[in-house]
Amino acid sequence: MDAQLKRGVLDVCVLAAIKNEDSYGYKIIKDLKPILELSESTLYTILKRLEENNMLIVRTAEHEGRLRKYYHITPNGRARIEEFKNEWKEIMSIYSFIEKEGDY
């Protein structure tokens, strides 16, 4: 898969994992595990990029005596999910065309 496309898909997967409730790193990895393997280093790179692009905000809270970062999706993050859905429809149309053209 093209690196840029994969990066965009991973970003949207992370946003989708937090769209209904705030979450933290380990839980995001656990929630995404059924659909993809994501290392901690990859996840935190994605989270940092999403924060820099105003698609999520971070808050720190104490949990069992330790500080934990919680991630919250912003309106920009929700808009990115919707943009991705529209882009994916276009990609699927192209895929269908390619499949149809392959039948000789």
Task: Describe the model.
There is one protein chain. This protein is α+β, with helices and mostly antiparallel strands and 104 residues long. It has a single domain, classed as Arc Repressor Mutant, subunit A (Orthogonal Bundle). 62% of the residues lie in helices and 15% in strands. It contains four helices and two strands. It has helices at residues 3-17, 25-32, 40-52, 75-102, and strands at 56-63, 66-73. Strands 1-2 form a two-stranded antiparallel sheet. Strand 1 (56-63) and strand 2 form a beta hairpin. Helix 1 packs across helix 3 (40-52) and helix 1 packs across helix 4. The model has no long low-confidence stretch (mean pLDDT 91).
Encode the helix/strand succession as letters: HHHEEH
Give the number of domains: 1
What is the terminal separation in angstroms?
26 Å
Categorize the overall geometry. Answer: elongated
Report strand %. 15-25%
Main pleated sheet? 2 strands, antiparallel
> How many helix segments?
4
The counted number of beta strands is: 2
Structural Rg? 16 Å
Class computed from helices, strands and strand pairing? alpha+beta
**CATH class call:** Mainly Alpha
Layout of helices and strands, plus pairs?
Elements: H1 3-17, H2 25-32, H3 40-52, E1 56-63, E2 66-73, H4 75-102
Antiparallel strand pairs: 1-2
Helix pairs in contact: 1-3, 1-4
Task: Give a short summary of the structure.
The chain has about 100 residues and is of the alpha+beta class. It is built from four helices and two strands, in the order H-H-H-E-E-H.
Overview features:
single chain, alpha+beta, 62% helix, 15% strand, elongated
